[in-house]
Amino acid sequence: MTSFDPVSTFVHLGDDGGAIAMEVTPTFWQMLATRTDLADGVLVSTYRFKEDWSTWEHPKGDELVVQLEGAMDFVLDTPEGERVITMRGRSAAVVPRNVWHTARVLEPSVGLFVTRGAGTEHRPATR
After folding, report:
1. Which domains, and CATH codes, for the chain?
2. Averaged confidence pLDDT in the chain
């Protein structure tokens, strides 16, 4: 095993205890949708953000969000209205399953996400 850049290589942690490192290519998300062997478990992914997310996301499982640096506001679309989770510097939050969420990037940020990918939906975000 060698080290890798977590922005360009994601890791799938299977329910069987295995870990599969996957290079992030332009067709990564299309490939991921066709891999039935990755339907269970969680995906660990890291992103760099310079601007607000262009979509809302709706996972079928709870999602761990770990902000490693920067400043973002996670916006959750709850039945009571929008709820903001303030993320500054190193911080973490759990986004509950089935809650649509997006992020507003206040300064360049790096975030690590641990989420069950199966069944995740997206919709365009408008401000």
Report:
1. 9-124 (2.60.120.10)
2. 90
